[in-house]
Amino acid sequence: MGPGRTTLVPPPGAASPVRHPEAPAPGTLLGPHYDQCFGCGEGQPHGLHLQARAGEGVSITAEFTVQPAHQGAPGLAHGGVLASALDETLGSLNWLLRVIAVTGRLETDFVRPVPVGATLHLEARCMGIDGRKIYASAVGRIDRPDGPVAVRADAVFIEVKLDHFTRNGRPEEIKAAMADPDQIKVARAFEVNP
Ligand SMILES: CCCCCCCCCCCCCCCC(=O)SCCNC(=O)CCNC(=O)[C@H](O)C(C)(C)COP(=O)(O)OP(=O)(O)OC[C@H]1O[C@@H](n2cnc3c(N)ncnc32)[C@H](O)[C@@H]1OP(=O)(O)O
User: Fold this and answer.
1) Which residue owns the Cα nearest ligand 1 atom 3?
2) Could you give the dihedral angle defined by the CA atoms of residues 59, 61, 67 and 71, in that order, rounded to the nearest 10 degrees?
């Protein structure tokens, strides 16, 4: 089935996700995977500064506080920003699997408006794996882990090789990321098993 027609539900026979034996313990803050990442990087002044934690199994919890720079309508978060927060949280699941993957498809339901100043509490879970396709779902709630649901998403990530980044990324940033003396950071920038 080609892109665009791929279902967001794992097909019958999809494998259950397996947490990598060296995945960080549940409750561990993952920290930014790349300091220039719009979702989690500390070097992006208007980024989301989303903070993700490992959950049980192949699951992630994350928090992100909506800033004035994230508005669409006055006083409300932009939908694309909320989709970014979902994408970042879902993408963090791959770190628990220790698989390099990129978002192929992301479908978002916007259920409630999210005001500036609100903290979105996100939870993502891997639902199944079929070859290179990783199926995952996420929900975002307002101000509390059990607050009202504001957004939901279903996604398919596609496993790629490291050269997906080195071939396609702008050379300046690739060189700078590879030159970092902290090799754990380099590995995390590319979401690779060190
Ligand atoms: C210095 C910098 C460092 C930074 C390093 C950061 C690295 C750490 C990243 C983590 C960061 C987190 C942040 C959030 C994650 C992003 O936001 S990732 C960015 C957004 N995503 C992208 O840019 C992806 C762009 N798309 C592509 O590059 C290519 O289309 C893909 C996805 C690699 C697929 O191409 P391909 O490898 O040629 O795939 P192909 O062989 O045709 O298909 C393989 C299978 O996948 C399925 N498939 C392919 N495309 C799709 C699709 N769009 N939808 C559904 N199914 C699909 C196919 O149907 C096929 O299924 P089967 O036939 O096997 O059942």
Assistant:
1) 189
2) 40
Q: What are the structural domains, with CATH classification, of the chain?
A: 51-189 (3.10.129.10)
Number of neighbours of residue 150 by Cβ within 10 angstroms: 23
CB of 169 sitting under 6 A from ligand 1: yes
What is the reported pLDDT for 186?
A: 72
Quick check: CB of 158 below 6 Å from ligand 1? Answer: yes
Ligand 1 atom at minimum distance from 173 CA = 1
Per the confidence metrics, is the pTM higher than 0.80? yes
Any atom of ligand 1 within 6 Å of the Cβ of 46:
no
Mode of pairing for the β-strands spanning 119-130 and 59-65 = antiparallel
d(CA 160, CA 34): 18
Distance between CA atoms of residues 151 and 138, nearest Å = 8
ipTM of the complex: 0.92
